[in-house]
């Protein structure tokens, strides 16, 4: 049932849905960074480690979204009214 919902969208929108795996990838990076540490002396040391991990991962995020203007138009059609709200934030 969930898979059929996925395929009701055009390929460009599906690509955006699929790229939510980026978030999962960031979480994996965080786990990888923190699992070898038993404990952190304070919260600030943990935040510094995670910040450096994000900085490292961000170097790989250089590829722009393909067909972004077309995808944005399709999102505006499929999610009428909601896209404008999100873009105002």
From TrEMBL:
Highest taxon above the source species: Bacteria
Keyword line: DNA recombination, DNA-binding, Transposable element, Transposition
Keyword Cytoplasm belongs to the record: no
GO BP terms in the entry: DNA transposition
GO molecular function per UniProt: DNA binding; transposase activity
Family note: Belongs to the transposase mutator family.
Function: Required for the transposition of the insertion element.
Protein known as: Mutator family transposase
Species per Swiss-Prot/TrEMBL record: Hydrogenimonas thermophila
């Amino acid at each position: 049932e969930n898979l059929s919902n996925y395929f009701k969208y055009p390929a460009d929108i599906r690509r955006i849905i699929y790229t939510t795996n980026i978030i999962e990838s960031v979480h994996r990076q965080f786990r990888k960074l923190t699992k070898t540490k038993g404990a952190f002396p304070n919260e600030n040391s943990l935040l510094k480690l995670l910040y450096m991990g994000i900085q490292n991962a961000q170097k790989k995020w250089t590829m722009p979204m393909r067909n972004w203007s077309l995808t944005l138009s399709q999102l505006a059609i499929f999610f009428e009214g909601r896209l404008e709200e999100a873009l105002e934030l």
